[in-house]
Design goal:
alpha/beta; Rossmann fold; 2 domains; four-stranded parallel beta sheet; 13 helices; 8 strands; globular
Length: 266
Amino acid sequence: MHKIARLSAEERRRGVVTISAGNHAQAVGWAAAQLDTPSVVVMPEGASPIKASASRGYGAEVVIHGTVHEAFEKAHQLARERDLTFVHPFDDDDTIAGQGTVGLELMEQIDEPDLVIVPVGGGGLISGTVTAIKAIRPSVTVIGVEPEGACAMRRSLDAGQVVHLDAVNTVADGLAPPMAGTRNLEIVRRLVDDVVVVNDDDIIDAMGLLLTRTKLLTEPAGAAGLAGLLSGRITPKPDSRVVLVLSGGNVSLARISEFSARWNAL
């Protein structure tokens, strides 16, 4: 919404295009509709059908195309051919600023958090969130959590530069871009206290615990933060006030059924 609202009237008239596995696609479709802006979202083959359907429901034109790498290329191609504005899902100052409202709301609602845990894909959500939190209370520890099958941010931090993954393989499709953003890497390097990596089993277990104990239905990406705690990769200090950002609840009944056997065994 923040990104599209800052476009000129002429840019909004021509429309916007983005690439997403589904969550950002829905956000762009919804925000564009509120601002009378045509929107196109490119999703890779294998993207969640419910996310594609929801994006169409919000008013977006959905284009299913190739791998995630090929989907990025397709989105840029459509931007050139149709004179659309590309709305990057994470590597964009205005997108990051919009996502930073999560941090602002968190600090308004939670009295003196000690530790905030944020799922990480390309790095947009954690970049905005940590910027807001640290500006208000620099002492708060902020840790990101990535799936090991798509740990572009952790690998980029270790390499000191953006690393492009040849392939991604994780149940958390919402955290699976093939690279971290350039802007995002710099913000994470400067402000985030750590980024840890969890496996898919950790994520599925966390998703089941959230559903059965708190009655909150998250998709795998949304449960990644709790997976960081349950796996022991994040160990809060005793009596810490810990905040989890649960980013995404778009999961099909078929996927829930697929995971249920594992949950029943917990």
